[in-house]
Amino acid sequence: MNLSPRRRVVIPVLLVTTLVVAFALYFFQPWRAFTNTTVNESLPTATAGGGEDAGGGSAPAAVKELARGSLVAHEHPTSGTARTLRLADGRQLLRLEDLKTSEGPDVRVYLSTRPASKAADGLGAGAVRLGRLKGNLGNQNYTVPDGTDPAGFRSAVVWCERFGVSFGAADLTPSPAAPR
Predict the structure, then answer these.
(1) What's the whole-model pTM score?
(2) Where are the beta strands (DSSP E) in the chain?
(3) For residue range 96-121, what is the model confidence (pLDDT) as tens digits?
(4) Spatial separation of the C-alpha atoms in residues 167 and 108, rounded to whole Å
């Protein structure tokens, strides 16, 4: 098979173009700019006996708010409230309420030792990853790993791993009744 000089150029250019487009689509995931994922998790309640309240006999024990703050936008419009909470059974979590942000290709939730204004420049040493962002809209709970003291962190950050940028962050101000 003898290819014309024009075909010898066109075929490799088409192959390279196809590979570049496929890579760009995977890496940037541009369709996420037009999609939303809403997650509305209820606040977990633990019974005084330590188990999850399944609607069975025990009344739910109180949830203690440790700290809270309002999310501020960094690289993407972001708003909502971040709260650190301690359940009656001792578990701790970060709760994002009324969250509104953009979707992204690899967005995670962190606790950072840096204030929200500095989180735009990076998470800082000692940041703790709580998990993948469950949705870009709604109310979500993220478990704080056992042995982690949320009081040692200054902000909650919605962070895009792929591009190394903060979508938004909230300074975590201790609640007046929070144990220190």
Answers:
(1) 0.75
(2) 38-40, 64-73, 79-86, 92-100, 107-112, 128-132, 137-143, 155-160, 165-171, 173-174
(3) 999 999 988 889 999 999 999 999 99
(4) 10
